[in-house]
């Protein structure tokens, strides 16, 4: 009796084994991906690659929506041996992707658009090759990086490796410095902007994850009164460039041109902070790992420490 | 005596024209077959010729190799078929307008219909924030509504070709301004998405796209052929045609609707791929050198331009996949420039 | 005979009065352009800024640094676009001739795109030269391609060559913009056509060229009248067709290239205004040219003023407003009149 029960149990266990996946992950869209083995051949979107490569997970291929050389998020990362299978929006070399026989596609889930990085066309083209998953873009870059840590660990990354630990430690230090700097200047206000030839665009904190991080760490960001573009920006004519008077201006640094454009506008200096040179970089939308976050935070901390917090009334 | 000679000469000329038409069609079909074979063969996923053939027949033979079948049946075949169908549709839309309006500039990508589709699609992408099928529907509606608006605005005791072209160009400028404005009002990744759609791409080809477009062509082509009979009378000029009792306005309207249908369905499938509509008609007529109106030949030219452009876009630069619309402009324009240069010898353009 | 002469004189007097009225309207719209903007500034402050500039006043700075250069650019660009449109239509005898149709805008745009993408240029004052070179080279290529072959640069061949070259250039532009969002981001604001953000540097760079172009264009009135009678008649009257077309074309390129360089591609002003001018003056480029030259900046500055106030606190670029004023007007004109006769 006992013996037959044991046999039955053993049978059950073996027959049930294939149903128990060796690897599973709950993606940003809420769906769970299950695979028989830990995936090793990964195709990553450019943002996912920027999150995973510093954690020791090297994808076999990257698809980007622009020239990889221009991608701020990938700067400084070693891409040797990784195939680039897309460098224009909506275009991906599906044959190259298929020839690489991927186990998994990792991208970020965009909650507003309810699609993955790269947009619907690319996702539709890639999804027959392998399941697609990844973290969700949300209210914090720090949370996003932690999601990448969890994903990388499940993929076999050794998060205790010296270079990874060093990056994280550098970030912790930079964060502590940043918090100390904001605490030391309770009256300091900041404004995040993008400068165009036609107008000055003032960013809403809620539209950018890193701005929400900064705010939660004590930086007082001025929010625009009317964010007209689905809550992302307020457009100010250059005649009204002095509508807000912050003590510190953060300028979108995805492209170095934005700062040059700002400096070239005659009414840029209607903002007292611009006149006083209290202007620094805003790492807009592209941060994906501890290393980059640490150096951008350090820049901000320096600017906050140097700024006069009582510049604006 | 002279009558006999004239009749013989006319017969000889007709015979020569018919031969030329057949030669042109045969040449274009041969070129199209070569391009299609190349489209099935070339790619980063290595498949040998027997594998391709076996895969093409796998739905009947049941011999399956998942990887190869995916590449051949799900990637290369839908893409090549959609290129052929959309190229032919754009070309037919173009040559109908160019013939009706008697102006080589009067193709739908210049007189505002493509702009209508584009502005509607960009609105759907940027303002409504939708993607996928909604964009195709938007483009279709935009094309049809713009064509309707142009026709109504040009109507004044009938429409003249000249008024349609001028009003179309006016609409095009206004709609282009709408697109530029939306571009300055959107976030960059939405602009990228809209821009990619505007250029036109075959990358997201699904078998379903070809089925919808093919179905539309099955209805539109016979309609076009029937209406073209009426056009034979019209080509003598409006006054003569009226005196012959042809219902000029009815035929004209019908043909324009058919042309808008071709343009709208093709644009909904692949985006407003530029220049195919503009260039196919003049090219076909140069090849024919006066031996016919060249609708069939134009459709073949359009399919060829589209297919060859996509081959170039996919394989010219090893690192970058470009959307087909980036190349059709250049590819078509090279043909057109050659044609302009050659026109000194052969006589006339269009 | 005497009656015909007096009729002629009457017409000339009427047309001169019209020119004076247009001049007055232009002055009024220029003042309006100084007085309106996204920021409300009282008229007396505007006047004080012009007569007694105070560098510490925000309002005065806005008048001098933003509105004054913008108004001057508007005047220059408008006059240049109107003239170049009229000259192009006359020289090619094509009612649809417009800088954009002959490839000038695409040439300028490609030069700017290459400048931003390859050379990393960011400043409008650098764009000016690029756009200028781009449009000049393109126009030359379009004209030479159209001139190949026996019958020379016929209007249809010019338009086809312009469309073909535009398509080639647009392909290259699209290829670059799709793979470089950084460039797309810069260029989308240039491509819309705007008078804002243009400082006095740009005016100084472009003004000499526009002045030369205007002199050339206004001086070509007689040649254009000759050409308008058809090549054979003009030849019989002893005119050198090729030379006339070449000079007129040169004037048009300088004007359109300079205007595009300063403000970005602005469609429709060059196309519509000469038709309106012709509707008032009747045939004869002696009148069409100065009328176009005064009416176009009225349209352009008027459009710019509207664009500044309709979407506060932002602005709508002038290129969009001109299209939305120009296109319906043009369509109405096409419906009312027969425009074919050129």
Automatic annotation (TrEMBL), chain A:
Location(s), subcellular: Cell envelope
Protein name stated in the entry: ABC transporter substrate-binding protein
Matches recorded under Pfam families: Peripla_BP_2
Record-level GO cellular component terms: outer membrane-bounded periplasmic space
Domain Fe/B12 periplasmic-binding: 40-313
Superkingdom assignment: Bacteria
Signal peptide coordinates: 1-21
Organism (species): Devosia sediminis
Family: Belongs to the bacterial solute-binding protein 8 family.
Keywords: Ion transport, Iron, Iron transport, Signal, Transport
Stored PROSITE patterns: FE_B12_PBP (PS50983)
Main location: other
GO biological process, one term: iron coordination entity transport
Automatic annotation (TrEMBL), chain B:
Alphabetized InterPro entries for the sequence: ABC_BtuC-like, ABC_transptr_permease_BtuC
A GO cellular-component term linked to this record: plasma membrane
Entry's transmembrane regions: 23-42, 80-98, 110-130, 137-155, 161-183, 211-230, 250-283, 295-313, 319-340
Highest taxon, organism lineage: Bacteria
SUPFAM superfamilies for this protein: ABC transporter involved in vitamin B12 uptake, BtuC (SSF81345)
Name of the molecule in the record: Iron chelate uptake ABC transporter family permease subunit
Keywords (A to Z) from UniProt: Cell membrane, Membrane, Transmembrane, Transmembrane helix, Transport
Gene Ontology biological process terms from the UniProt entry: siderophore-iron import into cell
Topology of this chain in the membrane: Multi-pass membrane protein
GO terms, molecular function: transmembrane transporter activity
Compartments where located: Cell membrane
Source organism phylogeny: Bacteria, Pseudomonadati, Pseudomonadota, Alphaproteobacteria, Hyphomicrobiales
Principal cellular location given in the protein's record: membrane
Pfam families assigned to the protein according to its UniProt record, in alphabetical order: FecCD
Membership in a protein family: Belongs to the binding-protein-dependent transport system permease family. FecCD subfamily.
Automatic annotation (TrEMBL), chain C:
InterPro entries according to UniProt: ABC_BtuC-like, ABC_transptr_permease_BtuC
GO biological process, one term: siderophore-iron import into cell
Gene3D superfamilies: ABC transporter involved in vitamin B12 uptake, BtuC
Compartment list: Cell membrane
Gene Ontology CC terms: plasma membrane
Transmembrane helix keyword on record: yes
Residue spans crossing the bilayer: 12-35, 71-88, 100-120, 126-146, 158-180, 200-219, 288-310, 316-334
Coiled coil stretches, renumbered: none
Primary site of residence: membrane
Keywords linked to the UniProt accession: Cell membrane, Membrane, Transmembrane, Transmembrane helix, Transport
MF annotations from Gene Ontology: transmembrane transporter activity
Bilayer topology annotation: Multi-pass membrane protein
Family, per entry: Belongs to the binding-protein-dependent transport system permease family. FecCD subfamily.
The name this protein goes by in its record: Iron chelate uptake ABC transporter family permease subunit
Organism: Devosia sediminis
Lineage: Bacteria, Pseudomonadati, Pseudomonadota, Alphaproteobacteria, Hyphomicrobiales
């Amino acid at each position: 009796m006992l013996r037959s029960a044991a046999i039955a149990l053993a049978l059950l266990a073996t027959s049930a084994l294939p149903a128990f996946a060796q690897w599973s992950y709950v993606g940003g869209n809420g769906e769970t991906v299950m695979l028989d083995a830990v995936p090793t051949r990964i195709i990553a979107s450019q943002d996912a690659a920027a999150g995973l490569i510093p954690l020791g997970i090297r994808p076999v291929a990257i698809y980007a929506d622009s020239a990889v050389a221009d991608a701020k998020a990938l700067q400084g990362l070693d891409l040797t041996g990784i195939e680039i299978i897309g460098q224009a929006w909506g275009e991906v070399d599906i044959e190259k992707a298929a020839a690489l026989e991927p186990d998994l596609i990792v991208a970020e889930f965009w909650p507003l658009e309810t699609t993955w990085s790269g947009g619907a066309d690319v996702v539709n083209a890639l999804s027959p090759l392998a399941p697609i998953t990844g973290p969700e873009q949300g209210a914090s870059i720090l949370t996003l990086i932690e999601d990448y840590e969890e994903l990388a660990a499940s993929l076999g990354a050794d998060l205790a490796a010296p270079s990874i630990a060093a990056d994280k430690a550098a970030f912790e230090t930079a964060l502590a410095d940043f918090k100390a700097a904001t605490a030391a200047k309770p009256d300091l206000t900041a404004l995040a902007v993008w400068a165009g030839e036609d107008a000055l665009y003032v960013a809403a904190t809620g539209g950018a994850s890193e701005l929400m991080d900064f705010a939660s760490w004590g930086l007082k960001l001025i929010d625009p009164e009317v964010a007209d573009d689905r809550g992302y920006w307020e457009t100010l004519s250059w005649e009204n460039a002095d509508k807000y008077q912050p003590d510190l201006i953060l300028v979108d640094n995805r492209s170095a041109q934005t700062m040059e454009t700002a400096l070239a506008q005659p009414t840029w200096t209607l903002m007292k902070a611009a006149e006083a040179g209290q202007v620094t970089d805003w790492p807009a939308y592209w941060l994906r790992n501890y290393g980059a976050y640490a150096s951008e935070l350090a820049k901000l901390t320096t600017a906050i420490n140097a700024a006069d917090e009582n510049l604006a009334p | 005596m002279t009558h006999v000679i004239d009749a013989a000469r006319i017969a000889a000329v007709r015979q020569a024209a018919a031969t030329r038409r057949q030669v042109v069609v045969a040449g274009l079909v041969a070129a199209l077959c070569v391009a299609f074979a190349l489209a099935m063969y070339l790619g980063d996923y290595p498949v040998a010729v027997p594998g391709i053939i076996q895969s093409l027949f796998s739905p009947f033979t049941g011999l399956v190799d998942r990887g190869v079948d995916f590449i051949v049946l799900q990637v290369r075949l839908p893409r090549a078929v959609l290129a052929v169908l959309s190229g032919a549709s754009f070309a037919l839309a173009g040559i109908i307008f160019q013939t009706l309006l008697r102006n080589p500039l009067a193709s739908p990508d210049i007189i505002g219909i493509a702009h209508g589709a584009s502005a509607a699609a960009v609105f759907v992408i940027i303002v409504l924030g939708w993607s996928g099928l909604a964009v195709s529907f938007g483009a279709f509606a935009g094309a049809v509504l713009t064509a309707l608006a142009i026709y109504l605005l040009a109507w004044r005791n009938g429409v003249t070709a000249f008024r349609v072209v001028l009003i179309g160009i006016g609409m095009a400028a206004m709609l282009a301004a709408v697109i530029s404005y939306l571009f300055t009002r959107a976030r960059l990744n939405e602009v990228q998405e809209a821009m990619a759609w505007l250029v036109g791409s075959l990358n997201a080809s699904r078998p379903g796209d070809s089925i919808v477009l093919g179905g539309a062509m099955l209805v539109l082509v016979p309609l076009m052929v029937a209406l073209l009979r009426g056009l034979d009378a019209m080509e003598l000029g409006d006054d003569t045609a009226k005196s012959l009792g042809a219902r000029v306005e009815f035929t004209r309207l019908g043909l324009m609707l058919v042309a808008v249908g071709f343009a709208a369905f093709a644009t909904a499938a692949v985006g407003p791929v530029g220049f195919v509509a503009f260039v196919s008609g003049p090219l076909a007529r140069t090849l024919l050198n006066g031996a016919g109106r060249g609708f069939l030949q134009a459709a073949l030219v359009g399919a060829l331009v589209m297919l060859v452009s996509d081959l170039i876009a996919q394989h010219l630069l090893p690192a970058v996949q470009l959307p087909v619309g980036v190349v059709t402009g250049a590819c078509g324009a090279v043909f057109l420039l050659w044609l302009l240069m050659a026109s000194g010898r052969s006589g006339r353009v269009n | 005979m005497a009656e015909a002469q007096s009729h002629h004189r009457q017409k000339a007097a009427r047309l001169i009065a019209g020119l004076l009225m247009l001049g007055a309207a232009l002055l009024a719209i220029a003042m309006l352009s100084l007085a309106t903007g996204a920021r409300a500034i009282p008229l007396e402050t505007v006047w004080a800024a012009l007569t007694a500039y105070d560098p510490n006043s925000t309002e005065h700075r806005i008048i001098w640094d933003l509105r004054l250069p913008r108004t001057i650019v508007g005047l220059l660009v408008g006059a240049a676009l109107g003239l170049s449109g009229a000259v192009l239509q006359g020289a090619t005898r094509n009612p649809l001739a417009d800088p954009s149709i002959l490839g000038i805008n695409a040439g300028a745009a490609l030069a700017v795109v290459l400048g931003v993408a390859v050379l990393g240029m960011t400043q409008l004052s650098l764009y000016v030269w690029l756009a200028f070179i781009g449009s000049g080279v393109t126009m030359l290529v379009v004209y030479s391609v159209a001139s190949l072959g026996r019958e020379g640069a016929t209007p249809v061949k010019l338009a086809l060559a312009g469309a073909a070259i535009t398509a080639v250039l647009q392909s290259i532009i699209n290829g670059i913009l799709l793979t470089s969002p950084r460039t797309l981001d810069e260029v989308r604001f240039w491509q819309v056509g705007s008078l804002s953000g243009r400082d006095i540097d740009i005016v100084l760079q472009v003004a000499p060229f526009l002045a030369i172009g205007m002199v050339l264009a206004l001086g070509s009135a007689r040649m254009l009248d000759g050409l308008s009678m058809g090549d054979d008649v003009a030849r019989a009257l002893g005119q050198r067709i090729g030379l006339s077309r070449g000079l007129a074309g040169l004037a048009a390129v300088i004007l359109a290239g300079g205007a595009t360089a300063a403000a970005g591609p602005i469609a429709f002003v060059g196309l519509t205004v000469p038709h309106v001018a012709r509707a008032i003056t009747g045939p004869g480029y002696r009148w069409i040219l100065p009328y176009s030259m005064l009416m176009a900046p009225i349209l352009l500055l008027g459009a710019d003023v509207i664009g500044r106030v309709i979407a506060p606190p932002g602005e709508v670029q002038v290129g969009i407003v001109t299209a939305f004023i120009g296109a319906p007007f043009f369509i109405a004109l096409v419906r009312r009149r027969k425009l074919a006769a050129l």
